Amino acid sequence: MSYAHPEYLVDTEWVANHLNDANVRVIESDEDPLLYAIGHIPGAVQVDWFSTLQHPLRRDFVTKEQFEEVASTLGITNDTTVVFYGDKSNWFACYALWLFQYYGHTNVKIMNGGRTKWEQEKRPLVKEVPSYARTTYSAKEADKSIRAFRDDIFKQIETKRPMVDVRSPKEYSGELTHMPNYPQEGATRGGHIPGAVSIPWSQAVNEADATFKTTEELVALYEGKNIKPDGEIIAYCRIGERSSLTWFVLKYLLGYEKVKNYDGSWTEWGNLVDAPIEK
């Protein structure tokens, strides 16, 4: 059984064969922004999740106009095929793809396996930072059908619609407020949103090479926890990056039509006055 939308996923060989394609822009987005300088795919540009994609003042993304500036500076046109990859099994690559989709760029793909698989195959990495001719990119109005806000979470709780907590089991239980082996900061309360089921993001990928699991494995994983394609689903984590990966899996690999990513996630919910929490 193939993925529902295989056109949103490419392998390392496809990327290697399109390194000189003027209509393709490869973007590296990592948790660790220093990795790009150490070595990146030839021709790839860097989009840092924090300094590039976040608004400098508000807890929000860059505006539509700021996004247009980012895309134009990177030499991306409205017709460019944009391929994302990164570390951590493509957490922030999926986050960047999600934001590109939020502003209407639909011609996007994830390189399956990310940096891990590229390095395992001993494919070339370079330190040279490429430069591309500036374009005039025109973004669309934000597509809020793929993004959840806190009011959406209250409605989801009230109507008992499904939510997926993709964090680690100890974050879900409330024992931790951040990922294991990270400083425990950013939230005053631990636990999970009432009604959310625990399906850690890592269960959707193969540990050996960071590629996504098969359709059959993914169906068993999500439907086994009653996360089915006919529901209106919201995924969340701590800041929205791990849940972006789960959003990508549900929407494009399994074909779920109504999936939102709650990027406020636990840093918002765990600090929100009078918000219900379960442990």
Describe the structure in your own words.
The mean pLDDT is 96. Helix 7 (169-173) links the parallel strand 6 and strand 7 (197-198). The relative contact order is 0.16. The protein is of the alpha/beta class and 279 residues long. The strands form 2 sheets. Strands 1-5-4-2-3 form a 5-stranded parallel sheet. It has 2 domains: 6-142, Oxidized Rhodanese, domain 1; 145-269, 3-Layer(aba) Sandwich (Oxidized Rhodanese, domain 1), CATH 3.40.250. It has helices spanning 12-17, 35-38, 64-73, 91-102, 114-120, 150-159, 169-173, 215-223, 241-253, 265-269, and strands at residues 9-10, 24-28, 45-46, 81-85, 108-111, 163-165, 197-198, 233-236, 259-262.
The fold-level CATH name of the largest domain is Oxidized Rhodanese, domain 1
Radius of gyration: 18 Å
Low-confidence stretches: none
The backbone outline, from C-alpha atoms, is globular
Number of strands: 9
Sequence of secondary-structure elements: EHEHEHEHEHHEHEHEHEH
**Reading side by side through the largest sheet, how are the strands ordered?**
1-5-4-2-3
Based on helices, strands and strand pairing, what is the structural class? Answer: alpha/beta
Shape-level CATH architecture of the largest domain:
3-Layer(aba) Sandwich
The domain count comes to 2
**Count of separate DSSP helical elements:** 10
Proportion of helical residues:
25-40%
CATH superfamily of the largest domain: Rhodanese-like domain
Amount of beta strand: 5-15%
* Average pLDDT, all residues: 96
